[in-house]
Amino acid sequence: MKQICQTPRLTIKQFSLDDAEFIVRLLNEKSFIENIADKQVRTIIDAENYLTNGPMANYKEYGFGLYAVLLKSSDTVTHETLIGMCGLLKRPELDYPDLGYAFLPEFCGQGYAVEAADAVLKNEVKKHSLNTIMAVTSLTNQSSHNLLKKINFSFIGTMQLYGEQSNAYEYRS
User: In terms of C-beta density within 10 A (0-12 exposed, 13-18 middle, 19 or more buried), how is residue 166 classed?
Assistant: First the structure.
């Protein structure tokens, strides 16, 4: 549960197996399945395997991965609330790490994704001396297109990824 960075409203930390219940919910949201993929994570055991073989394996191998995004406490909330994930992935199909993010629907449209993506991007580029970051989105995901523009990604064209045509973006530090 190592903390990666913070913003005024968010804490961004490494995932742990304690987050498995959240992962089951997030990965089965309609928006996740439509815009990212159906990861076939239906049970706590599936989620623990996803975390172990995905984000947690990436922390060990690359020093980065997908992170848990928590909404900080407020006057009405006495603990941090897990609202999404954001981080860098290293996919064998791409030449550079790429930025990924997903949030529960009730936390979309409030600027949390932009805030988390910007903080993670700045932190990880500096920490790992990365010059280029990619982002890949579905062709119809206008929200992600808008988010990536806000944090200085450039649209570079379309590409075939996992059998689907996708929009490709690039960030250069």
Answer: middle
